[in-house]
């Protein structure tokens, strides 16, 4: 280890539009695809830490998925004659050196050296945005493209979706909603909240379009989720909203524990999904 002071650990919150990225995780090697983490670590190189700075991401998101607020911890070891960065200075410095306009660091906190951004999270909330009344995706306002799933239907049976969502609440084996490739050791998760509600009119929709277009929000909260669990639950609840499934069938799908069942073949598009928040005990 090079000469320097004791490393200081920070928790940073950051947001991004995921359209241009191959997910949040860094892409190593010579591949052309790049993750959000690559840009964060590139910005951190300019901080002149004695040791290379690595971001440990709280919540992995796939290509095309956005984050209103994700989190990560990192260690910075400055020279022994320099004090640790304050959280405010660290936030400003990272934003100054970030080279992609779709990423922004929101806030930083000093945390103990044993703190772990992934393991210490007590809650994660995902938001999924839907639009109805759109005959084709290219009919969406340009400002809403890649921000929601445009459904060709004119309306959704929200009451049926809410009824179906109740079957998902609580602690269950969510194998039926897990995609292949999940690193999770157990498929058991506790879903604390699943809601479906109309969104206010989008400020990006012209008045003459607003009579047809309606936006909807779905939110899911748990301490953690399985790989693509939220997008698969969303697809099934949308099928209920469109009348293709009955609410009681969602319970049967859950209890089947079969990720390859005939009703689980569809996964909601990545571009409608946002990681809304990651919460920690005693922090923001």
UniProtKB/TrEMBL annotation:
GO biological process: tRNA pseudouridine synthesis
Active site, per annotation: 62
GO molecular function annotation: RNA binding; tRNA pseudouridine(38-40) synthase activity
Domain Pseudouridine synthase I TruA alpha/beta residue range list: 15-118, 164-281
InterPro entries xrefs: PsdUridine_synth_cat_dom_sf, PsdUridine_synth_TruA, PsdUridine_synth_TruA_a/b_dom, PsdUridine_synth_TruA_C, TruA/RsuA/RluB/E/F_N
Enzyme Commission no: 5.4.99.12
Residues where substrate binds: 126
Signal peptide positions on this chain: none
Catalytic activity: a uridine in tRNA = a pseudouridine in tRNA; uridine(38/39/40) in tRNA = pseudouridine(38/39/40) in tRNA
Stored HAMAP family: TruA (MF_00171)
PANTHER family per UniProt: PSEUDOURIDYLATE SYNTHASE, TRNA PSEUDOURIDINE SYNTHASE-LIKE 1
Protein name, as recorded: tRNA pseudouridine synthase
Organism per entry: Bos indicus (Zebu)
Organismal lineage: Eukaryota, Metazoa, Chordata, Craniata, Vertebrata
